[in-house]
Amino acid sequence: MISVLIPVYNYNVVTLVTTIHTQLQLCNIPFEIICLDDASSSEIAGKNYNISHLEFTNYIPSKVNLGRTKARQFLAKKANYNWLMFMDADVIPKSEFFISNYLKFIDSDYDAIYGGFAYHEKAPASNYMLRWTYGKTHEQIAATDRNKRPYKVIISANFMIKKSIFIDINSQIEQKGYGFDNFFAALMKMKKVKVFHIDNEVYHLGIETSKAYLNKKEKAAETLLFLHKNNRIDNHQNDLLNLFITLKNYKANVIFSMVYKRFKNPLQKNLCSNHPSMKLLQLYRISYMCYIDLNQK
């Protein structure tokens, strides 16, 4: 009935897989769990291999790093069931009814169900505050709000989708990199995939340092710009891209590019501090996007 698919890279998934496996057994349905280890270290891979002893669970090591998109495509094609549930390795279900909450929609008219993201209330160490603060303010969103614009908050760490639809859409993402959830969302919107959001969150555990996350946001902006320049993401619900297009139309992108060049260091200092400003993060992202657009060769 359902295939749970987990791409793994240098993260211990024993607790996650054991938790999911127990819930699946209690639901008394046909299932499988497939984990693709995308060339993790031998130490992590050795620990994760223990999940192979669980019934209907397959742990597949890869000698080469495929990257997020190809790893998911491999898992989708390997799956035996028509409903796929994708989970990131660094999450854990918030509810003991996590699986059963998804199964309620197996016979629905929807093509994809998104459960959402959650963060623990206790703040992390100061050098992890940017990722935690951003997650609390921009990702931890109630389903009622997400359903108002169903293609806007698309987080691939926790969702269920029909196999044929996923393989079709994911096959159109050819590049490696960070930030392709926006493209996946745009493709779903273009193909009129029926998306529904529910309150069935997973806690995000693998929070990066502020410096590493800021670098990821830069990569995501570069990806967004690449997709835009190549006319790959015309039909979307991305606020950052909408703002960039508006600024460029009014020639204001030059001003924002100068903001990035002049204030890059003080902005980074705030964003990597104990109290990062989300407004400054948005300013940093849009000014960076304007800057690289004008300065890329």
What does this entry look like structurally?
Strands 3-2-1-4-8-6-9 form a 7-stranded mixed sheet, sandwiched between helices. It is globular, with a radius of gyration of 20 Å. With 297 residues, it is an alpha/beta fold. The protein has 12 helices and 10 strands. Strand 1, helix 1 (14-27) and strand 2 (31-38) form a beta-alpha-beta unit. It has helices at residues 14-27, 42-48, 68-78, 98-103, 129-139, 143-146, 163-170, 181-190, 210-229, 239-249, 253-271, 278-295, and strands spanning 2-8, 31-38, 57-62, 83-87, 91-93, 112-114, 117-118, 158-162, 195-197, 202-204. It has 2 domains: 2-116 and 153-206, Alpha-Beta Complex (Spore Coat Polysaccharide Biosynthesis Protein SpsA, Chain A), CATH 3.90.550; 212-295, no CATH class.
Layout of strands and helices, then pairs:
Layout: E1 2-8, H1 14-27, E2 31-38, H2 42-48, E3 57-62, H3 68-78, E4 83-87, E5 91-93, H4 98-103, E6 112-114, E7 117-118, H5 129-139, H6 143-146, E8 158-162, H7 163-170, H8 181-190, E9 195-197, E10 202-204, H9 210-229, H10 239-249, H11 253-271, H12 278-295
Parallel strand pairs: 1-2, 1-4, 2-3, 6-9, 7-10
Antiparallel strand pairs: 4-8, 5-10, 6-8
Helix pairs in contact: 3-7, 9-12, 10-12, 11-12
